[in-house]
Amino acid sequence: MKRLMNEVIKPTARKLGIPEVGWKMLRRWNSTVMNEEHFSDRVRQTRLGHASPIVTNEHYTVVRDSVSRRAAEAIDRRLEESRKNSSKNVGTPEAVGV
Q1: pTM
Q2: Which residue stretches of 1-98 are H helix?
């Protein structure tokens, strides 16, 4: 594994402009990408070989800024839709989300 890292992975990473790379960084990236692709905690836990999804979620999964922004934008859209619907349907079940 050390030879793979030193002879293949690190030189490739340098060519791509990634200065530091190691196994833990690759495992974090793997878990983060699987999370962004909506794989379950169980799948990520199994692939990383952890006994508990808590370890995977707390130590190996990163919420990137771009994902956090998308989440905030989705909340804004839903709030705006709700505001528009409630002003159109005042006094109706739709106004309260029923």
Answers
A1: 0.66
A2: 2-4, 10-15, 23-36, 41-48, 53-55, 65-88
